Amino acid sequence: MKPIKVGLLGIGTVGSGTFKVLQRNQGEITRRAGRGIEIAMVADLNTARARQLVGNAATVTDNGRDVVTNPEIDVVVELIGGTGIAKELVLEAIANGKHVVTANKHLLAKYGNEIFAAAHAKGVSVAFEAAVAGGIPVIKALREGLTANRIEWIAGIINGTTNFILSEMRSKGLAFDTVLKQAQELGYAEADPTFDIEGIDAAHKITLMSAIAFGIPVQFEKAHVEGITKLTPADIEYAEELGYRIKLLGISRRTGDGIELRVHPTLVPAKHLIANVEGVMNSVLVKGDAVGQTLYYGAGAGSEPTASAVIADLVDITRTLTADPHNRVPHLAFQQGSLADTPILPLGKVVSSYYLRIRVANQTGVLADITRIMADQDISIDALLQKEPAEGEHQAEVIVLTHQTAEANVDAAIAKIEALPTVVGSVVRIRQEDLS
Amino acid sequence: MKPIKVGLLGIGTVGSGTFKVLQRNQGEITRRAGRGIEIAMVADLNTARARQLVGNAATVTDNGRDVVTNPEIDVVVELIGGTGIAKELVLEAIANGKHVVTANKHLLAKYGNEIFAAAHAKGVSVAFEAAVAGGIPVIKALREGLTANRIEWIAGIINGTTNFILSEMRSKGLAFDTVLKQAQELGYAEADPTFDIEGIDAAHKITLMSAIAFGIPVQFEKAHVEGITKLTPADIEYAEELGYRIKLLGISRRTGDGIELRVHPTLVPAKHLIANVEGVMNSVLVKGDAVGQTLYYGAGAGSEPTASAVIADLVDITRTLTADPHNRVPHLAFQQGSLADTPILPLGKVVSSYYLRIRVANQTGVLADITRIMADQDISIDALLQKEPAEGEHQAEVIVLTHQTAEANVDAAIAKIEALPTVVGSVVRIRQEDLS
Questions:
Q1: Strand segments (E) across B168-274
Q2: B290 and A135 in contact by Cβ < 8 A?
Q3: Into which CATH architecture does domain A351-432 fall?
Q4: Which family does it belong to (chains A, B) (predicted)?
Q5: What's A4-127's CATH class?
Q6: Catalytic: A205?
């Protein structure tokens, strides 16, 4: 049978990994897919570099439109990133009846509903395993492996850069800025690290997983997003004393009132498997009503791990190429037209436990004031640490771990605590999840 | 669209879980599958119990042939177990053009080649996610999620009973027999626990994963199988001192000479994620050349976790029901007719590291004798512990951790060590894997 012809938009890190792995493993991949998979055309602004990478194996162009309009091309792999030209080319590829594989979480988290609807109308697939957690086949697990389940929640370490930074801060007691610089030197963080360290990249990914898990449209604009830039080594150490580690988690949970969708630093029990996922590795924990907890772990980024996911999607498309489009796995796991309109919960209604760090003047009575405020807000206390001032300092620290309560209660308590004359500066708040 | 009609062979633990989950989550499952999935007929020898479970929802019979010959039934779910009547009914269902879903690892590990060939000839699917690691979608990950990769090795905790026993032995310092009794009382071990504790169940599962990973026929008869019955709390403790935990692993690895296929107690680095999988939980670690290591974790058994896998297979079949059979995912991941004839390696050629525990008379010179024998066999030593005799005893213990060497070298060394007049009884040998 004639090989599937693939057009590549962008041949940077992931694109060149995809090209290399397809070449290296073409024998095994063909034995699996039943047909060869061939990159026939590559579009990249740097045509010289592209030509060097692909040699005579593929045509090189500097214009993506050459790829998406080429009638020889069956599948377009979009690896440009961002929401500009990538969006135009993906929509044009779909309009021309081509299947699309993309690693672009930003694009899908923002414009997924529009893109999936266009693909559905045209009867083509838009596959995006590579957009979430790199090489870990977690989109497949959620969309196909756990279809029996009413998913209760998902919690994932889905950004390797921030997990590397947190791992280093904890194991070496270093400050955020110091480790960020190291991460940049090691190539684990970009020159402009905003998307990673502010939690935006993780929010793109949890948005996509949330849609698949709960059968709701993609709703990135409703996600609560908090990064790790304000975390201090002290918080990490105190959390450790209390039996927890701090991880940047993407969390989405189904509740009676709606769906929680949030990214923030989170205290997780130190003994939980996910607390022990260190360095740049990713891991996603899924709780289903039938299966219980399952966990998926692996490399969340990098050239060949991400290529592994891109190629898995290419093989899936190859295997179902002649299948009736209505019997393909739906983009968002649930059939188009049967998505739910369950609302995303506002953060104030989210129920969680909380770690609060409060800097206080070292005076008697402060603790009584704080605990009274919390009792008034119906917040009960799970654990409390008092850290005496270091020599020559006058301010102590109080760390409170609360039981579960609504975020709005904690907001109110924090406002009152910060208004106490004995309290200095802002209260540090980190959410805590038992993941049970 | 008319719902898919399912016939259930056996409605015990997993069967009743499947029925319950399909009923409870039928709304979500239909939204995912695009059609209803309905258990229309149930065969079980205990018809009274079966009727009580299914009420008026399904016809009940005591004869499995009624199910596999019923023209109304689209898919047969085989949950009888064993290789007797289950084999006959599966083959008859296939001959009648029905798709089959089964949790029966024993059947597939022994007769998989015959069954898959019959299904291929007839153009039907035999799906078996539930046969390996319960609710963890690891068959899907291997067969569809990691298709880009040349798989290098798989190592899995794929038997919950033995992992529970080992976890208890370690955390409480108890003997094997004591914990086995507790496991039986808790329902984690069967009255006849042979298949679990002797490693046979794990061997069935690693045999199936090995076929899928490497594109080879199912070859259970060539697996090396060792259980956990001879492990002592002392070995677990010494392993701990050396920085390792002992897990019963199913291991399959591709080497230049052939494929390793083995189940045995294994020392794994205590810091590795898989070493921290405790109790009845399962976990499978897969190393691919592109993706690196990925890990899958969850419940490996139980009513609803296993039902979760059965139903995922039913949804997959529903989604592809009109698809051209040649474009379906192949049973063993690689297209029928393109399986490889890579041999399974004999154990003597397997290269591993080893933990050896040697009981010796407390005399000078013993250690020199032992280390000389090992040097003569080209075995280099990674670590060595000497345990002095307890008061009133005259025998000490020597624990040796070796570097990598061929099993045949270790066989030879052990024979010579056991022949030393100063060595008492047999040498305990446990393999060690770095999983890196």
A1: 224-225, 244-254, 259-269
A2: yes
A3: 2-Layer Sandwich (3.30)
A4: Belongs to the homoserine dehydrogenase family.
A5: alpha beta
A6: yes
